[in-house]
Specification:
Helices cover about 35% and strands about 35% of the residues. By secondary structure, the protein is an alpha+beta fold. Strands 1, 2, 3, 4, 5 and 6 form a six-stranded antiparallel β-sheet that branches. A hairpin with a 7-residue loop joins strand 5 and strand 6.
Length: about 90
């Protein structure tokens, strides 16, 4: 699984826009988000689809399929839930 290309990030722009609305996240480089000073979320591409690696527990990255709009909405909701309780 390789890091995502700019072309594939273009497909995820609606997701990126929603992530940019989350105040506690900062986008250091397109598609790479930090929580405070620590890497929090980045993307990969694979023949199976597009994936986000997210450090929801603050320690380990967990992989989420973000190929489709439904998966993207679920990811944003999960991130908002985790950040609200932390």
């Amino acid at each position: 699984m390789k890091h995502i290309t700019q072309k594939e990030l273009d497909r995820l722009e609606p997701l990126l826009e929603r992530l940019r609305e989350i105040e506690s996240l900062s986008e250091k480089k397109r598609g790479v988000f930090y929580l405070k000073s620590r890497a929090f979320l980045h993307f990969h591409e694979d023949p199976a689809g597009l994936f986000a690696d997210v450090r929801l527990d603050g320690v380990e990255f967990a992989r989420f399929d973000v190929t489709g709009p439904a998966e993207q909405r679920k990811l944003v909701a999960r991130i908002r839930e985790v950040l609200r309780t932390s």
